[in-house]
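R.M. (postdoc): so does anyone remember the format we settled on? I'll just put the structure tokens first.
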């Protein structure tokens, strides 16, 4: 049985009245906040951890989450005054039993605004997209992404970019030129470029330990770089030998996961120090194969199929999505804060290019008709939707402001 469901049933306290959150510069109302006592929050993926701040009380913790452009869930320990901020919706993560001084707060912006703020008309994500930037309004996923397409706002990016990581303060790219790691704001403006000794392919980041992991394009190894967010500088940490040239890597709290450019190499699973722990089952073998983590599973795409593995690499099942007649080769897989799943058609036929959007239960939402030949990434904040598309002959950032 789902841990979240159990704890909600036993522990949830609903703060049903509107809360005007103090110290919020954007003056946003939190329409509906759930408090779950004696638990801590565990996000479904490490990227959804945003920050830990000190807060004098519960209201200041909720205010910090409400003010943050990505935060939708927070937990607070009244004994230590620590407030942790998360991008994930509360329903996508896991509630871990904890001491009685710890509580989780789930912010819900899906309130249909009426004259008397009738709470009976609450819509829910992921089927709807809700933002305090449009108080009292909810959009279907289809409508939200149609607005992105119709807005036609785009910023050109350098063609050298090969991979992209979306963070809480902009996005980072790896590239084939001498400025091999670049940091952009979500307006597409370059913030910082980091010189690197070799051309790079993949890039990933662990926000809890401020560490990048990058893949030299022509060398069979991974390299970790300690990142100082205060000075925006990087420092080499370690070099990890691999069985072949990596295509994609994922840096979780305790492990590294690596896929390869060669058909002969399945995913390998390593400790943080680089020691190989497991080789995944043969279903993870492929060339230029993307994957991601979601909750306690590896989600792997090869050809026009998507397979699920446990975190030791044991094959479990495949997705039942009926897209085999449309998608010829999957180029990226991503989940957003609400658990919506995105993947592209890595295809040279322009008529088939696009980003496909599904729900966790395999419900098809829409296809985003923006070419994504190399790889893509999507970020939905409380204020906008951003799509980064790396391709040939051009690479671009597309955005829509709510």
């Amino acid at each position: 049985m789902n841990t979240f469901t159990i704890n909600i049933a036993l522990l949830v306290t609903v703060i049903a009245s509107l809360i005007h959150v103090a110290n919020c510069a954007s003056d946003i109302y939190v329409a509906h906040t759930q408090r779950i006592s004696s638990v801590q929050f565990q996000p479904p993926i490490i990227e959804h951890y945003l920050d830990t701040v000190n807060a004098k009380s519960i209201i200041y913790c909720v205010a910090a989450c409400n003010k943050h452009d990505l935060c939708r869930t927070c937990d607070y320990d009244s004994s230590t005054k620590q407030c942790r901020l998360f991008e994930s919706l509360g329903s996508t993560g896991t509630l871990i039993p904890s001491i009685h001084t710890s509580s989780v707060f789930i912010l819900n912006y899906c309130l249909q605004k009426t004259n008397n703020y009738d709470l009976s008309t609450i819509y829910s994500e992921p089927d709807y997209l809700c933002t305090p930037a449009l108080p009292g309004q909810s959009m279907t996923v289809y409508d939200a992404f149609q607005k992105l397409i119709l807005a036609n706002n785009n910023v050109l990016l350098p063609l050298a970019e090969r991979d992209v990581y979306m963070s809480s303060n902009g996005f980072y790219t790896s590239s084939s030129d001498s400025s091999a790691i670049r940091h952009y704001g979500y307006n597409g403006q370059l913030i910082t470029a980091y010189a690197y000794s070799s051309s790079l392919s993949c890039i990933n980041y662990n926000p809890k330990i401020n560490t990048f992991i990058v893949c030299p394009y022509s060398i069979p190894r991974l390299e970790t770089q300690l990142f100082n967010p205060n000075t925006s500088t990087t420092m080499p940490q370690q070099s990890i030998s691999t069985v072949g040239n990596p295509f994609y890597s994922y840096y979780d709290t305790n492990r590294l996961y690596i896929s390869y450019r060669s058909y002969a190499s399945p995913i390998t699973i390593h400790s943080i120090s680089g020691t190989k722990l497991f080789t995944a089952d043969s279903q993870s073998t492929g060339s230029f194969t993307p994957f991601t983590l979601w909750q306690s599973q590896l989600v792997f795409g090869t050809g026009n199929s998507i397979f699920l593995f446990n975190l030791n690499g044991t094959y479990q099942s495949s997705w039942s999505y009926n897209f085999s007649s449309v998608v010829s080769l999957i180029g990226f897989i991503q989940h957003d804060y609400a658990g919506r799943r995105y993947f592209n058609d890595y295809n040279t036929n322009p008529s088939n290019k696009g980003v496909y959007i599904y729900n966790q239960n395999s419900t098809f939402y829409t296809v985003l008709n923006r070419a994504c030949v190399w790889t893509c990434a999507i970020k939905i904040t409380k204020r906008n939707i951003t799509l980064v598309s790396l391709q040939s002959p051009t690479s671009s950032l597309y955005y829509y402001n709510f």
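R.M.: ...and that's the designed sequence above, right after the tokens. Also worth knowing: The two ends are 37 Å apart (CA to CA). The chain is about 5% helix and 45% strand.
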